[in-house]
Specification:
Blueprint: H1 2-30, H2 35-46, H3 52-58
Length: 59
């Protein structure tokens, strides 16, 4: 019974560490100026913007 309890406690602590790490990673992605904002900014810079003349021609 003691070995089973020890294995169970190890699993609980391991899952706790994993969940805590995922929370920190998630908060670093979602915060202002985080990875998501930088990725969106990078994509916006990579896609060329249309000029007003091009927009008029497309309409």
């Amino acid at each position: 019974m003691t070995k089973l309890f020890a294995i169970l406690i190890c699993l609980v602590f391991t899952l706790g560490i994993i969940v805590s790490s995922m929370g920190k990673v998630n908060s670093s992605i979602v915060k202002d100026g985080g990875l998501r904002d930088r990725a969106v900014d990078w994509i916006d810079k990579a896609v060329p913007a249309m000029n007003e003349d091009e927009q008029d021609n497309n309409e």
